[in-house]
Amino acid sequence: MITDIEVNKPEPIAIGKKLKSFKQGTAVKATIEALKRGESILIKEFYNDGISLLHDLHTYLKLKLPNKSFLEQQAYRTEYYRLSNLILLEIVDQKLCVKKSPGIGWLEKFYSENNHFFLTFPQIQGLNSAWQWYQNGISIPVLRNKMHPYYGTYFPTRFEHLVLFDNWLKRYKGPKKTAIEIGIGCGVLSLQMIQHHFQKVYATDINPNAIVGLIEFMGTTKLSRKIELDFGHLFGKWEKQTELIVFNPPWLPEVHDLSHIDAAIYYNKTLFADFFCCGKKKTVT
Ligand SMILES: C[S@@+](CC[C@H](N)C(=O)[O-])C[C@H]1O[C@@H](n2cnc3c(N)ncnc32)[C@H](O)[C@@H]1O
């Protein structure tokens, strides 16, 4: 199925000027000094040169910055984030230019119209891990099949709550015509409900990647008729009452402006009040 929902992805960087580069044998200290001045550094030869520079950066910062108290750790992370994101990789024809680099399918999926750009090394690492998870799949104890989480989508790494929900679903004796899932993420809870014979789940998420990922994952299979998706806030466009409302919400109070994946973890002040306010009208009593 084709969708015109735009996914969140790292913004391509365009660079006109020649960049300083780093490879094995380049002076590490001078490179880190350049990063501290805000200069970008290009990894040109081997992918591993970038890994090695990130390692050197950690070693350098550990010596320079205290890293014990919460505030010190936060300052450490901020500085590491700033400097590491000045380390760049070049992408030509949707492939990394460096040797011995991983193949990352997201580059073709997300940047098919852009034949030359740069991304930061941490962004490439994020895309690479996400590609491995997506390609190889992740086994989740309560599901028959592996999940293939889409880039930038929350997926569970602990399973106690899923087992709890599964046990609850086993004992649930009520009607199973329809349910709503708010914040479907990679879809695990909805798939559990379908496994337990709910006929239809109406789901939402404010993260476009979750919606696009599931549209792609379900394709035109039977599942796509059982789980209907809406890219929207809380109940989105789903108006009708259902027998069950499921929401595994973000669990930490918001501390800063939400970035996309953070919306899976941090909630704003009004989320729960809004949820209970809209939800009241939507369950069958
Ligand atoms: C903790 S994750 C749970 C994902 C999935 N249901 C699971 O159990 O693995 C929370 C999800 O809720 C989504 N979310 C956060 N705020 C939302 C809102 N106001 N409306 C709809 N979805 C929201 C996030 O994007 C994220 O996918």
UniProtKB/TrEMBL annotation:
Keyword annotations for this protein, in alphabetical order, are: Methyltransferase, Transferase
Which SUPFAM superfamilies does this one have? S-adenosyl-L-methionine-dependent methyltransferases
Q: Mind telling me which InterPro entries this protein's record contains? A: DNA_methylase_N6_adenine_CS (IPR002052), SAM-dependent_MTases_sf (IPR029063)
Q: Extract one GO molecular function annotation from the record.
A: methyltransferase activity
On whether Phosphoprotein is a keyword of this UniProt record, the answer is no
Q: Which GO terms describe its biological process?
A: methylation
Q: What is this protein called?
A: Methyltransferase
Organism of derivation:
Flavivirga jejuensis
- Lineage of the species this protein comes from: Bacteria, Pseudomonadati, Bacteroidota, Flavobacteriia, Flavobacteriales
